[in-house]
Design brief:
Layout lengths: L6 H25 L10 H13 L4 E9 L2 E8 L4 H6 L3 E2 L2 E7 L15
Parallel strand pairs: 2-4
Antiparallel strand pairs: 1-2, 3-4
């Protein structure tokens, strides 16, 4: 009553399972932030985005840094607010963005600069 399974059906099923496993591995890597495609160096992303982000009122600086031991872009603001949080993206060029409160940044007057 039962017919023997055909070899072609089994090999097709194995091919589908293999393809599924490959897709899952690529999907998991992508979800962890592993970018399989080459991305711009972080220095180039900073150079390209600095003018745009520095034009946002309240942003006082930008830098390259580490977040969870991975390269990230740090955006320094006078005070963290929800309004600024909406204007600053979560990532730039594939790199995570960290917003840090730095307060107001000003140059010291010339008479307060220490001479060596």
């Amino acid at each position: 009553m039962w017919s023997k399974p055909k070899i072609t059906v089994i090999s097709i099923n194995l091919s589908i399972i293999a393809l599924f496993c490959i897709c899952c591995v690529v999907g998991v890597r992508g979800g962890q932030g592993e970018n399989l495609m080459a991305r711009k160096p972080i220095e180039d992303v900073l150079k390209d985005q600095t003018e745009k982000l520095m034009s946002i009122p309240g942003v006082v600086g930008m830098a390259q840094g580490l977040c969870n031991n991975k390269p990230c872009i740090k955006v320094y603001v006078i005070k963290k607010t929800s309004e600024l949080g909406q204007k600053i993206p979560d990532s730039l060029g594939g790199y995570p963005v960290s917003v840090e409160e730095a307060g107001e940044i000003r140059a010291l007057p010339k008479n307060q600069l220490k001479k060596d």
